TrEMBL record:
Protein's recorded name: Stage V sporulation protein AE
Keyword Ribonucleoprotein: no
Domain of life of the organism encoding this protein: Bacteria
InterPro entries xrefs: Spore_V_AE (IPR014204), SpoVA (IPR005562)
Amino acid sequence: MLITFFWAFVVGGLICVFGQIMFDVFKLTPAHTLSLLVVLGAIMDGLGLYEPLIAFAGAGATVPITSFGNSLVHGALEEAQKHGLVGVLTGMFQVTSSGISAAIVFGFIGALIFKPKG
């Protein structure tokens, strides 16, 4: 079990290091970096590389933003096989809707509880 934590830490850390390099070396904005990491996760899933990474690293691969791109493509491909072209659109939303909904609800609750400085 300890080795699982180790690899999750290493893989998640490497994804974060890659994002930090994009900030520091390439001077990309946070929006550009975020978009690039999501697209990278989507491409890796399209090539069949992200699922083995998840199997290997667990939360180290599912927690970073690259997993969002993976989820979008994974859901779209699954639904496209079942429902054709319409499934591409519905699959993206079906797989990611719970995570997005939770982010909105908890963000709203946090905004009600805490007062912003300013």
